[in-house]
Amino acid sequence: MKVKGVNLGNWLVLEKWMSPSLFEGTTAEDEYYLPTQLSREVYEARIKIHRSEYITERDFTRIKSMGMDAVRIPVPYFIFGDREPFIGCIEELDKAFCWAEKYGLQILIDLHTAPDSQNGFDNGGISGVCKWSQQPDEVEFELTVLERLAERYGKREGLWGIEVLNEPVLEDMWESMKVTERYPAADPEKAKGTKPNTMEFVRDFYLRAYDRIRKHMPKEKYVVIHDAFKLKAWKDFMQEEKYKNVVLDTHQYLMMAELQGCPQTVEGYVNYIEENFEKDIQEMSQYFPVICGEWCLFNSLAVGRDTKGGQTVLNGQEGVSEESLTPEQKREIYQALAKAQLKAWDAGSGYFYWSYKLLTDTVNTPGWVGWDSWDLGRCVDFGWFPTER
């Protein structure tokens, strides 16, 4: 099993930095507060237009032509339309399955958010709040969402697998990312009691989720668990005969390597990728198939300034508005980093790039130089990313 894929980020789960115009006229930093600052009609219109235009049939043919064989689709906990005021998006996922099956792609459904969030990141649905695991009713609700997804798509030809939960955060990552500073809560009252999850809770949730999903999904489809940013902590987990086709997902970004002290030079990045990403994946592949479910070419060297772990102008960081490198220099950096990272993921069972597209205008909006590398389509077009046609 080797998978080559790309994430359809910001389609069904919004991220403001990837599509700033959706948030125009509001101070909302995340999907939770967007409907509180727009009228129902405007909110519904924006969301429906965004979903219908952001990803279409043509994107699936483009992804196939890039040499990919799968897509990872982040979905929200309100996908079934049963959590006001949010609008469900099950019809969009239905369409994606039809497109995927028509054009020979597989889908990894990734449950990306939880009520009151599993991480406090903007991509967890509500910034600066992380309380989901403390609410048994909401934990149960999340399990029912997984079960309903498995029931609906478990036997579909286009299903590769279901990822139980994206990026639940534990204490060490909470501290090193300074989550509450990086993602300040809009409502301090709402954020009261916010804290990281415990490993004990995450493990228990994964075991329960596996049972609920497997009731409806055949053994040959994959159940994917995220490493909670601790790749090597899972050697003793789900090793019993009962657990079939469990895949461990790790997210490895160069911007996080920079926070760990990785030198911001091509040689520094390549060494770090080999000594850390590749070796750790090799080690853990003795226990699980390991995929890198999120990664990209973004790095501070190509931006021209230390981004302090990929903080954007939206995080209050001053961005770079003038290119300091020639297109040739950028191409050399990105090609070297693409080669090293693809080799590292090849030590495991493959990857999903983050992300397929970005609607941020990195040319006309000051401060976004270097952020185009999050967009796989642009990386392919500029010759930064190798494609096998």
TrEMBL record:
Record-linked Gene3D superfamilies: Glycosidases (3.20.20.80)
UniProt keywords, alphabetically: Cell membrane, Cell wall biogenesis/degradation, Glycoprotein, Glycosidase, Hydrolase, Membrane, Signal-anchor, Transmembrane, Transmembrane helix
Membrane topology (UniProt): Single-pass type II membrane protein
Subcellular location: Cell membrane
All residue ranges annotated as the Glycoside hydrolase family domain in the record: 53-298
Record family assignment: Belongs to the glycosyl hydrolase 5 (cellulase A) family.
Protein's UniProt name: Exo-1,3-beta-glucanase D
